[in-house]
Amino acid sequence: MAPQTLTLTLDPHALARELSGKLLIDGELVPARSGRTFAVVNPATGATIADAAEGEAIDVDVAVQSAHAAQKPWSKLTARERGRLVTECGRRLTEHAEELARLVALETGKALRTESRVESGVLADAFVFYGGLGSELKGESVPFNPKMLTVTQRDPIGVIGAIIPWNVPMMLMALKIAPALVAGNTVVVKSAEEAPLAVLRTCQIMNTILPKGVFNILSGQGPECGGPLVAHPKVGKVTFTGSVETGRIIYRAAAEKLIPVTLELGGKSPMIVMGDADLDKAIDGAVAGMRFTRQGQSCTAASRIFVHDSVHDEFVGRLKARVDAMKMGDPLDEATDIGTIVSPQQFEKVNSYIELGTATPGATAHACSAMPDDPKLAKGLFVRPVIFTGLGNDSRLAREEIFGPVTCIIRFTDYDSAIEQANDSEYGLAATIWTRDLRTALDATQRLEAGFVQVNQNLVVQPGLSYGGVKHSGLGKEASLEAMLEHFTHKKTIILNMV
Questions:
Q1: Hey, which of 161, 213, 345, 396 has its CA 20 to 30 A from 334?
Q2: CA-to-CA distance for 26 and 365, rounded, in angstroms?
Q3: What is the pLDDT along the chain (499 residues), one digit of tens a residue?
Q4: Which residues contact 151 (CB under 8 A, 6 or more apart)?
Q5: How far apart are CA 45 and CA 24, in angstroms?
Q6: Nearest to 15 by CA among 79, 131, 98
């Protein structure tokens, strides 16, 4: 039977209304069993754009049972056939990339040109990447006894429960479900309350290709929907991206079931700029690394920038000028560089940190860019990016994850001290070093306590590069072949003794 097709809908408001009040279970858009919904709000205007279905334990059970029933037939397909279908999903998502970009911009406030189109492109690329790795699900021949044939094989876990965040919901969902599907698992996703629409549309598009029940998606509140998903007896693995606090809750619940988890829990990523650094590249790296176009709402944001005393003042001035030139405005406007904070709660949190830093003796808050002057955006959750100087690495702004457009530039004179301060954090997700000296660069890559270390660049997560942190930044890796093999399969040892 030929795959189904869906009509492209480039009007995100119309698409939001079309998806309103729906979950996707067993290949069908359905309401929550309770009939309850919650509002999805455009953070640029404050207007309600849709109502998301409020899934609860009964909806979780139906979805997991559907995934469980579909898992055995799905796993019986050859790995290459599963990979082919996942690759076809990626191609179909490419056709819908602009539609998805507009929808995620509408619901999250991320600028269309600088952020949302990038995300929809990476979404499709992740499925194509993992679709091509089906042939890598292979075992080993073990030289245990020459009179016996001893081999290993990779078996799927079963039903995967995936809980995703709101900052890059489509991309982070893809990095979880694409390897899980290729490995022979089925998936139930719980979306973020703030961003349920684009991922629901992604699931709907993929269900025109995948067998029913292989990929299901729920929306709802954490305790009422996410909690039952983690606790469900037929969920054999949980993968989560979000806060440390929620990660601990999930880890405890998974421990009760003795099932594996992957946790990506955030960071306070340091950027070290040496006196010999190429400042043009370093400024570009700070703008990209701080994710200013995403309003700093990134776990890898370069929110601590250690700058050598000899270039500190020039670096601060040039970085401020660059961010000043960025335009804040309607996320769907092609001229906009920076959109909004995602929710009123996050808006209040970010502003509270800015107020705290501004009130700190000796600190200077360099507010950048300018608020939009369009009256239609008067209720929007816009926050001017702020570069703080004069704060130490012991300040709350330098130690706690703000998840907003706020960075601290910390002056240093001694390299060893900069490394020590960079490592003085409960987090260990990403780090960068900027220098022309190869010896310094190599030394820093060995000493920086992070799972993702770069020299003279600040790339975001890319399919094919192993990604994940240490310390409180989480457990496990994503975005790589390793993630598929180690986190979405069990290794079975088989011994044949025919003597």
A1: 345
A2: 52
A3: 445 789 999 999 999 999 999 999 999 999 999 999 999 999 999 999 999 999 999 999 999 999 999 999 999 999 999 999 999 999 999 999 999 999 999 999 999 999 999 999 999 999 999 999 999 999 999 999 999 999 999 999 999 999 999 999 999 999 999 999 999 999 999 999 999 999 999 999 999 999 999 999 999 999 999 999 999 999 999 999 999 999 999 999 999 999 999 999 999 999 999 999 999 999 999 999 999 999 999 999 999 999 999 999 999 999 999 999 999 999 999 999 999 999 999 999 999 999 999 999 999 999 999 999 999 999 999 999 999 999 999 999 999 999 999 999 999 999 999 999 999 999 999 999 999 999 999 999 999 999 999 999 999 999 999 999 999 999 999 999 999 999 999 999 999 998 7
A4: 139, 140, 141, 142, 493, 494
A5: 28
A6: 98
E strands, 328-405, where? 364-367, 386-389
Residues 206, 87: Cα–Cα separation, whole Å: 10
How far is it between the farthest Cα atoms of the chain?
A: 84
Rg (CA), the chain: 23
Query: In which element (H, E) is residue 163 found?
Result: strand 159-163
Amino acid found at 94: T
**C-beta of residue 293 within 8 angstroms of C-beta of residue 338:** yes
Are 271 and 306 spatial neighbours (Cβ–Cβ below 8 Å)? yes
- Is 225 an annotated catalytic residue? no
Counting other chains too, the contacts that 399-402 makes at CB distance below 8 Å and 24 or more residues apart are 399/268, 399/425, 399/426, 400/268, 400/353, 401/266, 401/267, 401/268, 401/299, 401/303, 401/427, 402/296, 402/303, 402/349, 402/350, 402/353
Sign of CA dihedral 65, 66, 68, 69: positive
Q: At residue 328, what is the residue type?
A: M
List 193, 264, 449, 478, catalytic entry? 264
- Dist CA 286 CA 410 (whole Å): 13
Q: Are 398 and 410 in contact (CB under 8 A)?
A: yes
H helix and E strand count, the chain? 16, 21
**Directed axis angle between helix 79-95 and helix 169-182, to 10°?**
160
Q: How far apart are the first and last CA of the chain?
A: 48
486 is catalytic: no
Q: How far apart are CA 21 and CA 23, in angstroms?
A: 7
The b-or-e profile of 233-264 (16+ CB within 10 A means b, else e) is: eebbbbbbbbeeebbebbbebbeeeebbbbbb
The active-site residue, picked from 299, 401, 449, 478, is 299
The first and second tokens of residue 289, run together, are 């690394």
Element (H, E) at 470: strand 470-471
